[in-house]
Amino acid sequence: MQRELPSCAAMKANTDSQPSNPHEVAWEKGFAALKQFKAREKHCRVSRGHQEGAFNLGTWVINQRNRRDTLSVQRRRRLDAIGFDWTLLVRDPLENGFAALKQFKAREGHCGVPRGYEEGSFKLGRWVSRQRNKRNTMSTAWRRQLDAIRFVWDPYESAWEKGFAALKQFKAREKHCRVPRGHQEGAFNLGTWVINQRNRRDTLSVQRRRRLDAIGFVWRLK
Asked: What is the pTM for the complete model shown?
């Protein structure tokens, strides 16, 4: 007895539930990423360049705005239903600052922006200070974006770590921590840093004192 083959209609029904067009698949992936972003951040204002996992959601969102007039009615309705922002009247100030910070880092090799510093005509130092002040209230996505380029949240912590690294480099070479007054370790004023640690011994955190003790820091010069 010959087995009856499934009809063309039945075969089509089995495939209709899943998009087969690569462009359709890509769009659905972007829409899913946007919904995930909104569920977490409670809005659809995706930053330019934002990655949602491994997906470049920022670029996808820009593409939807640029293609608004050519998107299908169904897609526009689905985006409207989750509160998609079609028009940004001005560029997000956060994005202006982030672009300036990336430019600064590409040139200087770090994100330690001096207070009052201007990158071109942009007041980057002031912008960086505002991000630090908002650290506990900013969105998780924005904080991750800053962390990804090694944003300096505590400039004093960063400066101390720079000094400690210079001291370890000095000791590795000289085999002791008796740094002369005024000594420069590379471009870092290590002599002054060491004096400051001695003068602040009673106010240094226990952790910092222990780290200095562990490498044989000389608290008093006889």
From this structure: 0.45
Domain residues of the chain, as ranges?
16-81, 93-148, 155-214
Cβ(55)–Cβ(30) below 8 Å: yes
pLDDT digits (tens, 9 = 90+) for 184-202: 999 899 999 999 999 999 9
Nearest 10 degrees: CA dihedral of 188, 189, 192, 197?
10
Q: What is the 3-state secondary structure (H, E, C) of the chain?
A: CCCCCCCHHHHHHHHHCCCCCHHHHHHHHHHHHHHHHHHHHCCCCCCCCCEECCEEHHHHHHHHHHCHHHCCHHHHHHHHHCCCCCCCCCCCHHHHHHHHHHHHHHHHCCCCCCCCCCECCECHHHHHHHHHHCCCCCCHHHHHHHHHCCCCCCHHHHHHHHHHHHHHHHHHHHCCCCCCCCCCECCECHHHHHHHHHHCCCCCCHHHHHHHHHCCCCCCCC
pLDDT tens profile 97-117: 888 899 888 888 888 888 889
